[in-house]
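## Example pair
The file below holds two records. Each record gives the amino-acid sequence first, followed by its structure token line.
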Amino acid sequence: MSNPLPIQTTMKHKSATRRNIACWLFWLLSLGYLVPAHALGIHVQMLQKRVQKMTIPGGSLSNALSIIEDKAAVSLAYDENVIGSYHVDKTLFTETTVGEVLTHMFHKFPQLHFEEKYNTIVIFPNQQYSRIDSTQLSVNGRVKDEQGQGLTGVTIIVKGTNIGIISDSKGEFSITVPNEKSVLIFSFIGYHSEEAMVGLHTTMDVTLLNDINSLMEVVVVGYGIQRRDEVVGAIASVPVKNISSRNYNSAVEVLQGTVPGISVINNGGDPTAQPSIHIRGIGSINGESPLLVVDGVPFTGSFNSINPNDIESINVLKDASAAIYGARASGGVVLITTKKGLSGKYNVALSYQQGFQQVAKKLHTLNAAEFADVVNKVRSEANLSSDPAFDPAIFPDARITKTSWMDEIFQTGKIYMINASISGGTEKNSFFLSGGYRKNEGILLNTYSNRVTARLNSTHQLLKQLKFGENISYSVNPSPCGW
């Protein structure tokens, strides 16, 4: 009977101990909410955080910092405009700290500095290098030609930006660039363009070399030919260097989208239809088409009768340059020069092309049921009874679509074209002979063309002051009723 008392005392002692421990734990947890973590000494500094393994890919510094934030779970603060031009190499870090990672990355960027403030790693420009990093550089210089003369109006642009200026009357310039890695591009008509990196230079002297090819280029005008740099009128040259690589139905298609100010509109899907051509819009109430001149002679035929593969050059006269042709040139002039034989060079060419064409987009038309609904609705609004022709009780097929007329009138047009030419000559004689055949099925049913062309021209130098030749062309392009 004496044992229960000690047992009861022991149990009370254990219960009191547990209550004391619970109270202490509650007090500590409450204190954790009231006292900042770093005051208790349990805060781990951001720069001292351990990194087990981290790979920084080569690229922008901004991307590398984003990876450090994600992998190391730290907070970084920086200005994108300050670090945007810096790049890092690919590096693997193992068993290190965030501070050591940043120190290794920034050792080649003395312009940048980092510190930890209020649980955030702040990256900012180093004041000792602020002029080199974030401050824009002012570059002065002079642009001159090969004789040392200053060039006026040279365009100077910072590569990859929209920053640019023009040199003054002495060829001098002053431009502000983002940093020392900026590249300046110097360009001027008639000269080769030059590029130069700024680096640590604040003064630059640039010499531009003449571009002989651009200065010696000639264009055909109403009264002969002129050098490109001597032309002051509105004359446009059409690029025809790769004309044989495309499949043109007529010569006028070469003008589409190649010369500013010229509108070429195809009239329907008939390959024999004449397109509408307007230079600088409709110039009069009659909307005249431009005058066509082939090898210096006004051509009364159409563009469709000229084989595009026989064309050497095309020039368009838009203003007073066409005045030599009088009132006929009120709508502008298109000058076409055909190919000629070259002295001392013989050339044989043969080409064959095949393809097809389809309508790009068909109109959506009403089917039989939709058409019947429209007719009956119109009749009901006019207080008339429904049309019995669309009554299924009378005509069972009245609302059934049997024919899609949009599909019936269009077709897939096949194209076949073959061209052959031979040319050559000597110092006193030259010739050019060509022939071509083109079969073109239109995208409209029962439309097609069969064009046959032939051309012969030659020149003969009999005397020093006497030269003669001929230019003969033949073209036939029957309508669907002809063949």
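Second record, same layout:
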Amino acid sequence: MFDGIDRFSILGASDNPDVPGLGFRYDTDEHWATPNPTGREGVFEAYCPPHYRTMADAVDAFAHRKFGPGGPFHPDTPGAWTDTPGFRSSAQVHDETFKACVSLQAQYILDTFGKFPATVPTVFILNYVQAHHLDLDFYDRFFTPGAYLHTHATHMDTWHRREETPPPPVAPQSGGEGPPQPGPHQHLGSPAEQHHPRPAGNSTGYHGTRSRKRKSVPFRSGSRTN
């Protein structure tokens, strides 16, 4: 997605004192295509030198941040799940062998390329848009009330009416009897009634309070051959 944002200038790596950005420190090297921001001291520091002496120190600090008090995988950290302590503590804690392996590889990358990671900036701004329908049953089961908004709960009924396939025309009976069939320039009812009929038993077209089913529409080519 193009957003017109100069990511390096926002972080503070524009090399222009009139454009300080967020004030992140950064390094440059003739072998790199771009400057490399690593963080702002005391505010946001990447897990790599110069904020840590070695990559082993950075790995230890990172593991403590994940599993230590206040971390996302510590059972005492509050959360919105129905079983927050159980969910948070279900992640496997990094043991010393695992951390030593990661530290060895990370230090090799740093020593070889002069920064970590090797081929992308250490700190980078990435804008994106995510659009999808929430699985409300999932949130109702695993989260406490309030995990989603009222607009999420009513979205499907508000914006996506249930569509049903209209019944085929009734064929005339033998002997010419039966209801008249529409000609090539006629239709039965209005276009809205043909393509969006109301489901029986409910004048609003809704079944229940929420509808999450999505109808699959087969692909049809716009061209044809004679």
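Notes on the second record: The two ends are 41 Å apart (CA to CA). Strands lie at 25-27, 36-40, 44-45.
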